[in-house]
Amino acid sequence: MKTLKITDLHVEIEGKEILKGVNLTVNTGEIHAIMGPNGTGKSTLSQTIMGHPAYQITRGTIELDGQDLAEMTVDERARAGLFLAMQYPAEIQGVTNFEFMRAAVNARRPEDDQVDVMTFMKDLDRNREFLSMSVEMSSRYLNEGFSGGEKKRNEILQMLMIKPTIAILDEIDSGLDIDALKVVSKGVNSMRSDNFATLMITHYQRLLDYIVPDYVHVMMGGKIVKTGGPALAKRLEGEGYAALRDELGLQIALTDEDV
């Protein structure tokens, strides 16, 4: 079992504090979902876990099996088994999907045990077909010209190929129609095992209808204010965040779409 443990995490960007004491433990074999109103720090948490240099930890720790991630570079975190499916995947001209994913897979393997081209191609084709993606995607430049749905499927394809230990999915459902949502969810569910964990960031209950979490965490004001099971997400869908905020006695402003 591997454990990602976040303790009293405070993070700022450009001098503004965003995370104000996040505590969270994710073990392999578990599916966690983080929900919360806009601007509460959900994406900041994902970027900080993976080591984005713009996000500065001012207090607290993030540990993977007891090792402080602050001591690890981004590539070392990836090699250790962390994976981030980004909310807005970047387009990279000149690098094909095939080249990118093979390099990412081999980066986690010893130099004397690199995956050969034919073995990789068979694995890629199998996972591509599983996600209902076209043959042409392998030779296309990474995310260039991809629709929003194609980019999200491509992030899940990368996850299936790389086989991380802990995957952070930052709004993997945003912009997806119901058919694409089902395909993406199928990909995530296929990874479920005692050796894999997912931390999903989402605004919407509908994702959790297809990927049923073990734990649902609500973030407000830069910290996790409540944890429960799938029923908590259904409650938020029906009542919005304002009812929970008032119940907890929090002094947090919400936008109209969050209420």
What name is given to the CATH topology of the domain at 3-87 and 165-248? Answer: Rossmann fold
Number of helices: 8
Structural class: alpha/beta
Radius of gyration: 18 Å
What would you call the quaternary organization? single chain
Main sheet overview: 6 strands, mixed
Distance between the termini: 38 Å
Percent helix, as a range, is 25-40%
Instruction: Give the uncertain stretches in residue-range form.
Output: none
What percentage of the residues does DSSP assign to strands (E)? 25-35%
Mean pLDDT: 91
Q: State the CATH architecture of the domain at 3-87 and 165-248.
A: 3-Layer(aba) Sandwich
Enumerate the strands of the largest sheet in spatial order, edge to edge or round the barrel: 6-9-10-3-11-12
Number of strands: 12
User: What's the helix-strand series?
Assistant: EEEHEEHEEHHEHEHEHEEH
CATH class of the domain at 3-87 and 165-248: Alpha Beta
The shape, in one word, is: globular
- Specify the CATH homologous superfamily of the domain at 3-87 and 165-248: P-loop containing nucleotide triphosphate hydrolases
What does this entry look like structurally?
By secondary structure, the protein is α/β, with parallel strands linked by helices. It has a domain at about 5-85 and about 165-250: 3-Layer(aba) Sandwich (Rossmann fold). It has helices at about 40-50, 75-80, 95-105, 115-130, 150-160, 180-190, 205-210, 230-250; strands spanning about 5-15, 15-25, 30-35, 55-65, 65-70, 80-85, 90-95, 140, 165-170, 195-200, 215-220, 225-230. Strands 6-9-10-3-11-12 form a 6-stranded mixed beta sheet, sandwiched between helices. Keywords: ATP-binding, Nucleotide-binding. InterPro entries: AAA+_ATPase, ABC_transporter-like_ATP-bd, ABC_transporter-like_CS, FeS-cluster_ATPase_SufC, P-loop_NTPase.
